[in-house]
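Lecture notes, unit on protein representations.

Consider one protein chain, 894 amino acids long.
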Amino acid sequence: MVRYVYAFTEGGRDMDDLLGGKGANLAEMTRMGLPVPPGFTVTTEACRAFLTTGSEPEGLIREISDRLAVLERAAGRRLGQPDDPLLLSVRSGARFSMPGMMETILDIGLNDDSVLGLAKSSGDERFAWDSYRRLVQMFGSTVMGVDGALFDDAMVRLKEARDAVDDLGLNAMDLSGLVEAYKGLIRRETGEYFPQSPAEQLRRAVLAVFESWEGERARVYRRRERIADDLGTAVNVQTMVFGNLGPDSGSGVAFTRDPATGHRGLYGDYLPNAQGEDVVAGIRNTVGLEQLKHLNPEAYVQLREHMGLLETHYRDLCDIEFTIERGRLWMLQTRVGKRTAEAAFAIAAGLIDEELISPDEGLARVGGEALARLMFPRFDTGAVGPALAHGIPASPGAAVGAVVFDSAEAVRRAAAGEKVVLVRQETTPDDLPGMVAAQAVLTSRGGKTSHAAVVARGMGKVCVCGAEDIGVDPRGRRFTVRDTAVEEGTVISVDGSEGAVHLGAAPLVDSAVMRYFETGEGSGGVVEAVVRAMHHADRVRRLGVRANADTPEDAARARRFGAEGIGLCRTEHMFLGDRRQLVEAMILARTDTERERALDALLPLQRQDFVGILEAMDGLPVTIRLLDPPLHEFLPDRTELAVRIAAAEAKGSPAGAHDIELLDAVNRMHEENPMLGLRGVRLGLVAPGLVAMQVRAIAEAVAERRQAGGDPRAEIMVPLIDTVEELRLVREEVEQVLAEVSKATGVAVECPVGTMIELPRAALTAGRIAEEAAFFSFGTNDLTQTTWGFSRDDVEAAFFSAYLDKGIFKVSPFETIDRDGVGRLVGIAVAEGRAARPDLKIGVCGEHGGDPESVHFFHAAGLDHVSCSPFRVPVARLEAGRAALPEVEAGDSR
């Protein structure tokens, strides 16, 4: 029989699949002897069974009852006991951290009788009624489905009537009345009474946590973080300890290192006379942990000792929740903490220096997306005036956007293409869609451990919290700072690194990390940590990293960024600008002589392009793709030409003969689906002289560079191959031209000839194609389009967002490679190509070459290199190193 419930004393951190991250870590802390309130975990298997059938699995309630009885015997009290009640918390706990996305219910076991017993046993009547109102409010909204705003409004009205700044200004009688008001709300909104049975409260709370796995905000968060939908959540049932028992009590959240910078030390927030939910929700501004040293020196010392023990044990930044109940410290949770990109690199470097982890483990804990964020521009603080307001720098970076005051407006404006900044007093889990849509989050309350800060860091969003000078008026759609009013739609700049807010769009400058890659200059801080990670990645990686570059400038930049060659040089980009007229002349040519004249004019221009690129990449391979797009793309737009001719005729002047000739050519070449038409190798085979001109330009550039003492390594790539016969014909023409140039220059010009694998048929017949190819390069953009039957230019705007929302896609197949479909074709082509030609070199030059997850796939598939845009080269280098690591503990900062 399946077992669904485990005591904290029975688990450990390696059981997170079954017990969820929170449950596994509670069990681990219990095993370590830390002061953890006793409890038990209902497994993720129970959740999955419930979600499948819609009812609790057989035996679950009996197991919960049995485990509860053990808790009651140990405590000497029963759940909800009228004279001295045992109370419980019920919290979610998925395998991967999903802060605030699922439900929590505290103070289970209170009812109209036990609240009086709690008041007597605690000696604090206000505390008892405060705990009861929390239960009724949480249970009413999360379990019974009452709109949480109704409870909030009732609280606001009561505070206004009592002229209270916050909930601490309400006495026991006020809170008793509020409980009755809350119960009336529940009765009115649901037709049910608030349940007085502690057992029913516990049962319904557990099931509500299960149901919250399928809640909208949880689904949105999982899509954003790419967490699988079928994992389910565990539920942790734990003996309540109380931080709201007076000034010698309180709750806090602590980090063993600064999650924003990675600096060592004790970081976090503490809120006296409060429960943990108050800290995260940001309903009152917290004090720093240093204040705890003065408020409760003994608890402070114990907390520091426990934090040091946990960091050493977990060998990573730990995020800790704790409560002090009348001077006694309790540890409620620990997990590997979320951190910013800067902190990720700094922490990894620090732990290596402290010999807590190896260089391999350090590399495993930093990712390409974090590196990309560190390469984003920063504000030029020297070019802006004084900040409008300051807050806590919760998640670094620079963001500019129009102010919005609610999630729906953020989503609406972002969908219309506008950049926005979400401004709130504090965020709640319901704000998640707006946080995803926004460039930055700004709150007037909360600290580095508030909901806004934790979620923003996890998503890599800029965030400033606790900007106390800002008065947020969501109903008036504005915020004020002293005498300045900022209306919705006003553009502001949010500096998450400095915690500053500026009016208008502040100018940007390159980040220190980007300056390092551009110039090789910079040291200390995050630059040093990044450099160390990059050096180790380069030492261990097997996969080469090249760049997609079409100009000498791009090639030189790619080399500075660490590219080991060019994996894709698109020759069609060299036909734009002033050269377009020469291409038009080639297209309009009516005789061989006219066509040759146009090609002869293009030849020296292309040759000089290749000379510059080969010089920039001297000694490294440069893979040059022959012309790929259809020729009509180099002609004016069909509609534009027709309108121009009609307008001329309407004015009584004869239309230009050249325009008429161009329109005739456009009409002749018009294709219903040019992506699948006359392009690539097909164009080269039917347009006389085009392949020869391009190959001659390449060969002459190679000869020129060799004569100048260089080491050019050009490779010629034929696009859009379907059959081996196409490649054989083009290869014969290429070899003939190379021989002619070698003879004419006296320089032996040898250029390997390979092909792009970008059509399913090419992948499926790769063994035969390899007989004629020195190398393959997967063009995964077109391979994705032709495998899925998608036209990328159309479908991304048409229905991709709906597919992502419905969970059909976890991520766009153009962003991360589709392993099951496109990836399988890649695997077939690699296996059959290498079987036919063991020395076959294989790379990829689609946009997937710079995507971190795809880089890991290409490593595993056995490719020799990836190629990506110059700015993604450092990301690809880092991920190629991580892909080559043995199985090491990478931690989890989600």
